Amino acid sequence: MNEFSEALLAWYRQYHRRLPWRENPDPYWIYLSEVMLQQTRMESALPYFENFIRELPTLEDLASVDEERLMKLWEGLGYYSRARNLKKGANYIVTEFGGCLPEEPKELQKIPGIGPYSAGAIASTLYQKPVCAIDGNVLRVFSRLYRLEHSLPGAALTKAVREKVLALLPHESPGDFNQALMELGALICKPNSPDCPSCPVRSFCLSADAQDVSDFPRRKKKTPPKEEQHTVIMLEKDGEFAVEKKSTGLLRGLYRFPMTVGHLNSSELQDLLEGKGFAIKEIHFIGESSHAFSHRIWRMVLFHVLLEEKSHFYEWFEKKRLAELPIASAFRAVKQWLGL
Ligand code: SF4
Q1: DSSP classification of residue 207
Q2: Which of 200, 224, 273, 336 could form an SS bridge with 11, CB 3.0 to 4.6 Å?
Q3: 26-37 residue pLDDT tens
């Protein structure tokens, strides 16, 4: 084994975080954790993972869960297409692979929601296949180790890092090696404050030698997220509130409160609702909130509107039932106001 791997693995075996899927490397647990950790930090994903395992203890349970329950379990974790792919993937594993995760990365990538990174992580962790698993942590660590000039994100950087990782990957423990690189990025070689003095591979690091760690990885200019203004309307009639379920677009599969584009004031909102045939008793402005998606930000003004009559445009639920529905996180302020 090369010296880099020895130093990294010795550190990993002593300091890695004790996580359920590391303590119990069950294929279902590894599959679930890999999908949850795409675009989500470990600390945020962990309680969701534990809840999923409690509620859906087997791959077959996940494959057959109904969509509303799935969305409720996923509520708050974001990137909801992952939840739909998680179930689709579980179905695929059950129907195409008899419930067992295949060993080869190419086969693994046929599963909906499993890309090259997850396939590499699963194949190396579960089956000790000598393949790499390159996530954002690994890209950052190797950019710094070798002072790579390729920008993040970018295919050129991924390719350069893959070559470097494969050259160092020890064939006797590829799973631990991949996990160790990701752990190094998460615990030591952090984006803003790398702890170089504590780093097990400090003696191999070119940017630490050159004292320009903060210049790596090189970054492309980010396009700022697009800001959108919305008015969110809590329509209430006799203790029941109006919601609608989105079947397409950004919040597909989730419930949302009625909303309209732009920031309306009370009288504009009254005109709009009356124009649509609503009979209004009272309108109250209740506050403002924001929610950041990956490429856009919603700036919302929130209103509570008491009606004389319900409208058939929406579904109506009491608070107790609302609390059970998967409601998009963008409406966290509304849910708080309702005490859900
Ligand atoms: S020495 Fe510093 S910059 Fe280099 S890999 Fe370690 S933590 Fe990252």
Answers
A1: H
A2: 200
A3: 999 999 999 999
pTM for this model (two decimals): 0.75
Q: Which tokens is 322 given?
A: 């609302």
With a 6 A CB cut-off, is 199 part of the ligand 1 pocket?
A: yes
Q: Are residues 139 and 286 in the same domain?
A: no
Which CATH number is 83's domain given?
Answer: 1.10.340.30
Same domain, 208 and 312: no
- pLDDT one-digit tens code per residue, 223-247: 888 999 999 999 999 999 999 998 8
**Ligand 1 centre and the CA of 11: distance in Å?**
14
**H or E element, residue 339:** none
Q: How confident is the model at residue 294 (pLDDT cuts 50, 70, 90)?
A: confident
pLDDT digits (tens, 9 = 90+) for 161-220: 999 999 999 999 999 999 999 999 999 999 999 999 999 999 999 999 999 999 999 998
Q: What span, in angstroms and rounded, lies between the C-alpha atoms of 189 and 227?
A: 32
DSSP 265-276: -HHHHHHHHHHT
Range of the domain at 119: 3-219
Distance of CA 202 to CAs 17, 116, 141, 224, Å? 21, 28, 11, 35
Q: Two tokens at 46?
A: 């962990």
Q: Are residues 206 and 75 in the same domain?
A: yes
Rounded-to-integer distance, Cα 254 and Cα 127, Å: 36
Tell whether ligand 1 has an atom less than 6 A from the beta carbon of residue 202. yes
Other beta carbons within 10 Å of 308: 9
